[in-house]
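Local shape tokens

___
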Amino acid sequence: MEFGIFGVSDVTRDPTTGVTPSEAERIDATVRIAKKAEEVGLDVFAIGEHHNPPFFSSSPTTLLAYIAAQTTTLKLSTSTTLITTNDPVRLAEEYAMLQHLAKGRMDLMLGRGNTAPVYPWFGKDIRAGLPLALENYELLHRLWREDVVDFEGNFRTPLRGFTSTPRPLDDVPPFVWHGSIRTPEIAEQAAYFGDGFFSNHIFAPSAHSKRLIDFYRQRFEAHGHGLAKQAIVGIGGQTFIAKRSQDAMDAFRPYFNEAPVYGHGPRMEDFIDQTPLTVGSPQEVIDKTLTFRETFGDYQRQMFLIDHAGLPLATVLDQLELLGEEVVPVLRRELEALRDPEVPSAAPTHAELVTAKYGDQPARQPRPNPNRGDNVTGSSPYQDSPALQASGAAFGL
């Protein structure tokens, strides 16, 4: 099981002090949070993508590349990358570059995004959000797997003999998650391609997330990628931890009450009772997280939301200490002991994806072909690496 933290990059007023941090302060804090996540033994850090206030992460690849340069083991991901308002060509290029810079320590989660004003800013219509997501991912999927792409769809100009550069690291695309709160079509897309499916699992009861996850598992098996129980599932979660349960409740209450999403709504106690939110001691977080496996079956990635709603950096770092030292080690042991041996314990690493494609043979290393003229249409603009010249035929290259 992989454990990590994810955030949406909100810049929110601290209700206990009345102070709103600057964008610069939040960006610096996010880098410190990611580095702390690695320090305490977490596996994954993910950041969302937004293009409007009060969020700062309009360029997640830039932020993640900077974090990659300052970490050694942490896997970098997104929560979410907008497959609707971003052009697939640009996504293919930016995330392949991040993959190279992170030496494979990355994956990404694709989603539609639900901020209506963003669509026209990028020349899109939110009413076409779902078909945009489906068509754009079809193109992105091909751009990472084919040296030369011809494509014609409904939402962009056609491509003729197009090559996305750089090619993915080792000519192996990053692992992709598809994230959705309520859309079965996105779960179907994940299942069709054999990709991972991530359920936000924050604002709604587990029964809501279970319907989507069960559907994804069934379709994963129907498309021939393995047994339903072997589908790659990620789960979100939201938590606030203190040594004593009552201390956690007291400390988090003002942030809950003023949170932009659920503030001024239900009582915190009711929200804890009815949703995955956990506010309490390390043992209470452990106990509630273990119920997720009872609900969803074995899954591969557990992400916690702990940096939001105006929580100051010092508090978030304290949360990470408790999460890394007292919660995650217990969850690792407990969940591994319960895991079905036929089910993957984590999402595939870059090294595992390379092995799955090439076996014991060296990976293809694309390099420009100096003998290719600009007027050569449809032929690959790359030559095989010397290491593959003898073995490339085995892969049909």
